[in-house]
Amino acid sequence: MKPLSFLLLLSVCFFPLCAVGHQDWPQWRGPQGNGTADSSATPPLSWSENENVRWKVPVPGRGLSSPTVVGGLVLLTSATDTARLALAYDRMNGQKRWETVVHEGPLPEKMHRKNSAATPTVASDGTHAFAVFHHGGDVFLSALDLEGKLIWQRKTGPYECDYGFGYAPSPTIHGDLVIVSSEFTAGGYLAAFRKSDGKEVWRTDRKVKTSYSSPIVARVGGKEQLLLSGADLVSSYDPATGKSFWQIAGSCKATCGTMVWSEDTVFASGGFPNKETLAVRSGSEPEVLWRHTDSSYEQSLLYHEGHVYAFNDGGIAICWEAETGVEKWKVRLGGPVSASPVLAGGRIYAMNERGITYVFAPDPEKFTKLAENSLGGEGFATPAFVGETVFLRTADAAAERQEWLYCLGE
To answer: Is 161 within a domain?
Structure first.
């Protein structure tokens, strides 16, 4: 082995279990919460069962949560018929480091076939992992250390899905807070809990028809804003207090995608019962810049250098000019789609439910497909992109269904 290669290998082997760094993917949609990998990411362009697979390990049960990568660990949640699980795998070799039963009991009675009892993605601050499960009619937030020990657990409140789809939003971290969403007509809420002990810090009503988007904190218009779409509203809150900054009508009642943003504008999309994507300039008096009937319902949008990219439910890739909403191009690739597109290494990676990942250039002038990669029979969980590697959760859709976690890299 060449000396440089050996040093690089050592740097991968000994990732410390410490505070979140640039070699981590600490929450849903990555280090910034917007689907953009760190600038140091250099993922492989192509992969298959026989190409660029560093390791592959089985995952028990079923789940749709995306991989979370912190220090030397890859974190997932999953669900069996009798338990809700938090799992950790060694980032270097895929060896299971621990498996913790967070809840015991049967699966929720009402759940769509495209959802799971382990859909929310783990959030981590590099010291603890925060997992959310819908269990026994309530939403629970659990804090585990990075050795798998349950530190504390809090019932954040009830959840009753108005549509029977199940629960989906991932938690997000802001400073010393973990923020959780549970939206339904009878008693929905946004709530923040202290990371150290789970004490509730604030709570805001979201008694609206059920929506599924994950809240995210972004710096827009010069200040930190907690963004959330759904209930026919695009909403902004103070992440420190839960008080409303502003709200504006759009896009539809139920959204699943997490909002994205530029320096002063936010972008939201939804698909039930109507379809709409819109851009809203943030401020004390928010302004709608544009609206389109093209939409992404289950997927999040992607913003990059003055343009918004989508890979929607039907497998159509679209590029809009962020300021005007002018459509630059639209190309059918293939669906259906649940996972969200990710920008990494100067490319956009977009996976459909059949396990096919399309790789294309973030070029507003023309669509250029760079690769088409197939792995597994299912692709619902958005991959994580860290350094030279991609962590991808998929499944064999045979009679004996089996989930797998892959580490991909040249």
So the answer is: yes
- Whether the pTM exceeds 0.85: the reply is yes
Tell me 218's DSSP state: E
Q: What angle do CA 376, 308, 294 make, to 5 degrees?
A: 80
Tokens of 389: 């590697």
Which of 21-25, 92-96, 259-263 has the weakest average pLDDT? 21-25
Residue 47 located in a structural domain: yes
Calculate the CA 339 to chain-centre distance: 8
Structure tokens of 187?
């008693």
Residue 18: inside a domain: no
User: pLDDT (tens digit, 9 = 90+) per residue, 145-196?
Assistant: 999 999 999 999 999 988 888 999 999 999 999 999 999 999 999 999 999 9
Torsion, Cα of 187, 189, 195, 198 (10° steps): -20
* CATH number of the domain encompassing residue 191: 2.130.10.10
HEC letters along 62-117: ECCCCCEEECCEEEEEEECCCEEEEEEEECCCCCEEEEEEEEECCCCCCCCCCCCC
Cα angle 192, 35, 405 (rounded to 5 degrees) comes to: 95
Number of domains in the chain: 1
**Does the pLDDT value for residue 1 go beyond 80?**
no
CB 45 within 8 A of CB 54: no
Does residue 319 contact residue 368 with C-beta atoms inside 8 Å? no
Secondary element (H or E) of residue 11: helix 3-13
Sheet holding 172-174, edge to edge: 172-174, 177-182, 189-194, 200-205
Distances (CA, A) of 28 to 34, 271, 307: 9, 21, 22
CA distances from 114 to 10, 168, 381 (A): 40, 11, 11
In sign, the C-alpha dihedral spanning 105, 108, 112, 114 is negative
Which range of residues forms the domain containing residue 260?
A: 27-408
* Residue 163 · residue 115 · CB < 8 Å: no
Question: Using CA atoms, how far apart are residues 379 and 93, in angstroms rounded to an integer?
Answer: 22
Chain segment 257-315, per-residue pLDDT in tens = 999 999 999 999 999 999 999 999 998 789 999 999 999 999 999 999 999 999 999 99
What is d(CA 201, CA 234) in angstroms, rounded to the nearest whole number?
23
The verdict on residue 2 lying in a domain is: no
